[in-house]
Each structure stands twice: as structure tokens, then as C-alpha cells.
Write a structure and sequence with these properties.
alpha/beta, TIM Barrel, four-stranded parallel sheet, 17 helices, 10 strands, globular, binds inosine, binds zinc ion
């Protein structure tokens, strides 16, 4: 009897692999054609292009700025068309469909409800319409033979002052598909400790949260997120590599913070191509992903913003395969890392690992 052996590590085969995604922004993942159609519907006339190809290119190039602040400016156009019930639910439905078509079997998708109040919706209504869209998209994906479990994280903007309110909103929706809380936005000048009240509330409610930290700003931000705020995971956290010195013979020495992050198995939501776009790292090949993976940090692979990055989970994994020579067992390990770090219950995580991820990778491993 002969065995087929491992499948080739092509983008098409990676698309077949069951993948788990922890860090993806709803307002960073719209289809360009949807941005155009929703803009026409709601009378938004400030889009920088009038056809899907040119608009997609514009987002990608404008986000490729080398600066997080300029990268974030591009969100004005997506947020502008996500102000109505239809806009929100359509974007959420398509997000679920697109992720499922890419082979994502588990996704935590985040967005900031406070940015979607311009047309008069309440925070609760914003979340309700978004969750309805996710549910519809997941139903369509199941019908198309690509089931996905999609849940939501609510983000508070770190420059604003609504984090406690958003934390409470998260807890209010905890049984309806919202599994955690986050803060995002420009990092420099807005340390996580500005939002201690929100994090403390989450902890009193036994509720999960992650914090964008160690992306545009370095170790102090990571230290605050862990030591003062008590974060469960690090959004990016890539700058933890600043606390690792690799000697001339290749021997790594970890500082106290890097050791703590590794010892406590604090998950790193790494987003390779986004980090290149915002200038956090020069290229995927120079990304500390591999250093961190080899040192057995709890690394996970993420998209951050599929529209701005012109990317997908499969494309991020392929970029890592090309840069670092990973095989299927590495991709499976990163996927299981993500699933173990997710904010759904422990038995639900195990079920996806045992019934979906392991059998799916076994086929590819041959
Ligand atoms: O990589 C990032 N770092 C910090 N903030 C981000 C990143 N990507 C998106 N957002 C911010 O999060 C908001 C809610 O989804 C987006 O509107 C954007 O301003
Ligand atoms: Zn992000």
C-alpha cells in the first residue's frame, strides 16, 4: 500500500487547511466593490476611486505608508459606509463568507462600535446588526460546504474615552456572540493604562480581553498591557523581540519581560504583512515571527486588515512558508496555538482542534 505523502505547500492547498484567526478588523476587510456600492447607497462621495480594482489598489498603497497613523487614516472610508443597519450587516455577512471561502474555520472579528453611530444607531443596535450579519454569513458558508464559527470582539478606540462603556457593552452581549474586548488606534501617546477602568471591569466580570500593544510602540506598552492591565493576549506584541538579544553565535538571551510572556504562554497575535505596511518591521523575511516561533512563544498568524493588506489567512501563511520554510506541521502548530488562545470555552476549543483542525491537517500531511 502506498501513501500519498504531504500535499505541496501552495496557496491553493493552504486554502484547504482549516485555519483559526484571532486578529481581524471588520472595518479593515471590506470587499472594494462593497465599499463602492454602500457609498452610493448612503451618498458618501469622498471615495478616492470609482471602480473596485482602483479602489482596492488605493487602499493597499495608502496603507503601505510605513506609519501606523497614516495606515489608520484609510479607515475613514470604510467606517463611513458602515453606519446603517444594512451597511453593518452586509459587511459582517460578507466577512464571514470571505473568511470561510479562504478555509478559516474559526474567527474572532473585531470592530469599534463607537465609530458607527453617525446615522443615529445606538451602540447596542450597532452590535445587533453586525451579529445578525455574521450569523447570516455563517449560515451561507455552511450551505456552501465551508462551515465557520465566527464570533466578535468589541474594540474601544484608545484616543477616545468610551472604553468602560464598550467593556460593559461586551459583557452585555457575552451570550450572543461577543467573546471579548480590545483597544486599538494610534499607540504612541495613548498607553493602555489610560483604560484601566475598562480592563478592571472586564476582570471583575471574568471576561476576556486583548490589547493592541507592542506594534508601533515598544516594550513599555507591552509591559503596561500585561502588568497593569492584565491582558489575556497581545494584539501584535511583535516588539517583544526588542527584549531578546541574539549573540554572535546565534544564542538568544531573553530579558525578564520576554521570559515572562513566554513562561505565561501569553498569545501573540502576529500580523506579518500589516507590520511591514506600518513600518514595524522592514519585510516579512525580517519579521521576528520565526525567532519567536523557534523560541516556542505562543505565536499565532493573523491578517489584521485584509483590505488594506490585500491579504488573507492563506496569503499570510504562504508568505511565512516562503520566508521561513515552514511545513504543514508548523502551520498546524500555529493554528492550534490560535485555537488554544481563543476566547470561546475550553470544551469548544478542544472540539474544533480535535474534530476539525487535526483531521484537516492530517489529510494535507498525507
Ligand atoms: O493594526 C492596527 N493597530 C491599531 N489600530 C488598528 C489596527 N488596525 C485597525 N485599527 C483600528 O481599529 C479600529 C477598529 O477596527 C479601526 O477603525 C482602526 O482605526
Ligand atoms: Zn489590529
Amino acid at each position: 500500500m502506498s501513501y500519498p505523502g504531504p500535499s505541496a505547500l501552495t496557496e491553493e492547498n493552504i486554502r484547504q487547511a482549516p485555519k483559526a484567526l484571532l486578529h481581524d478588523h471588520l472595518d479593515g476587510g471590506l470587499r472594494p466593490s462593497t465599499v463602492l456600492e454602500l457609498a452610493a447607497d448612503c451618498g458618501y462621495d469622498e471615495l478616492p476611486a470609482d471602480n473596485p480594482v482602483a479602489l482596492g489598489t488605493w487602499f493597499h498603497e495608502a496603507a503601505d505608508s510605513g506609519s501606523l497613523e497614516r495606515y489608520l487614516e484609510t479607515f475613514a472610508h470604510t467606517v463611513a459606509v458602515m453606519q446603517t443597519p444594512d451597511g453593518l450587516s452586509r459587511v459582517a455577512r460578507e466577512c464571514a463568507e470571505d473568511l470561510a471561502a479562504d478555509g478559516v474555520v474559526y474567527a474572532e472579528v473585531r470592530f469599534a462600535p463607537e465609530q458607527h453611530l453617525d446615522a443615529g444607531l445606538t451602540l447596542d443596535e450597532v452590535v445587533e446588526h453586525t451579529l445578525a450579519g455574521f450569523e447570516e454569513g455563517a449560515d451561507n458558508a455552511t450551505a456552501a460546504g465551508k462551515p465557520i464559527r465566527i464570533v466578535c470582539l468589541l474594540t474601544a478606540m484608545r484616543h477616545a474615552a468610551r472604553s468602560r462603556e464598550i467593556a460593559e457593552l461586551t459583557v452585555r452581549f457575552r451570550d450572543r456572540g461577543v467573546v471579548g474586548f480590545d483597544i486599538a488606534g494610534a499607540e504612541a501617546g495613548y498607553p493602555p493604562s489610560r483604560h484601566l477602568d475598562a480592563f478592571e471591569y472586564m476582570r471583575t466580570q471574568n471576561a476576556h480581553f486583548t490589547i493592541h500593544a507592542g506594534e508601533a510602540f515598544g516594550l513599555p506598552s507591552i509591559h503596561e498591557a500585561i502588568a497593569f492591565c492584565g491582558t489575556d493576549r497581545l494584539g501584535h506584541g511583535v516588539r517583544i523581540a526588542d527584549d531578546i538579544v541574539v549573540g554572535p553565535d546565534g544564542t538568544p538571551t531573553l530579558g525578564l519581560l520576554a521570559n515572562y510572556v513566554r513562561d505565561k504562554r501569553i498569545p501573540l497575535e502576529l500580523c506579518p504583512s500589516s507590520n511591514v505596511q506600518t513600518g514595524a518591521v522592514p519585510s516579512v523575511a525580517e519579521h521576528p515571527f520565526d525567532l519567536l516561533a523557534r523560541l516556542r512563544f505562543r505565536v499565532t498568524v493573523n491578517t489584521d486588515n485584509r483590505l488594506m493588506g490585500d491579504t488573507s489567512m492563506s496569503a499570510e501563511m504562504l508568505a511565512l512558508v516562503e520566508a521561513f520554510g515552514y511545513g504543514w506541521s508548523d502551520l498546524e502548530r500555529f493554528t492550534i496555538n490560535a485555537m488554544k488562545s481563543s476566547f470561546i470555552s475550553f470544551p469548544e476549543r478542544l472540539q474544533i482542534i480535535d474534530d476539525v483542525i487535526k483531521p484537516g491537517f492530517a489529510v494535507l500531511l498525507g
